[in-house]
Amino acid sequence: MRQTISKTATDPEVFRAPSLFYAAAREGMRDLLAQPEVWRGERRAILLPSFIGWSANEGSGVFDPVTGLGLDPGFYDLTEDLAVDLSSLDARLAERRYDVVVVIHYFGRTERAIGRIRELTDRHGALLLEDLAHAWFTHALGGPAGRTGDVSLYSLHKMLPMPGGRGGMVTYRNSGWISGQRETEPGFARHVLDHDPVGIARRRQENFRVLTGLLRALPELGSGFELMWPELADDDAPQTLPVRILGPGRDNRDHVYAAMNREGFGVVSLYHTLIEDLRAHPSMARLSRHIINFPVHQDIAPDDYPALVGSFRRALGTARPDTSPDVGGASLLVQVQHL
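and the corresponding structure tokens:
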């Protein structure tokens, strides 16, 4: 039989990953999870990681759709650097049936075990939902983030200057999961196309590496703070640069946050308070009370960082002696959390 090759691509399904746009990623997540086809039974069980934030102003982008739909949540463990504990995930999937498994690429860092996670979810017949609220530019660099799960969530307003500070996107690697979903902001697609994602990713990588180099040189490293991720992979584009502020309680972290923002340096403390279900989780609750995030977004030039680092040192030098116990409870910080 004679074979032919067309002049241009004509098959609309080759590498197709349709995207739906919403005012926020949490809205798209709820739209997906509201579809009856997602669930194999009446129990509607969803398995999530044990580090999920909550804010008095914003609630929880990841968990609000779960509670709003009356789903049955379970949680698997993470390591101290927020990687998936595969043994915990395997055990949770073995002990009861979950129809959906959520994996979060925290602060734009690729979950490196995502391939193994996919094997586990396939074995147990669960939909793999990748939360890339912080990892749109990581996905743009071509690594496994956003290319392994069945569905991916993106918070566009956390990555790009979106209209009104809004914007979420849900991308389906398998269009068979699209049934009754209804996007609410299809016009947001043009704002994504208006930007150069790889160029932005490279700027964020450069900023991360410059700032990490300056922080690594500080004498306070190891006594006043620790770097969570001293090295950045070539296919990771960070949302922020997270560090741990050391001390037995949260007072030093909150002091650094307040002092630097008073000086005009927009640091945040993402996941400063965990959802109620997780506040008794020892290692994750402790991390939430110590973490602070430095900006590395595309508006910043590398030469801007010496001033930020100077402010950080002043804040560390004036931190109050920490006498508060390292226990749970809400922080005074109010930040947008997730999705």
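(Above: one complete record from the training split.) The domain at 19-193 is CATH 3.40.640.10 (Aspartate Aminotransferase; domain 2).
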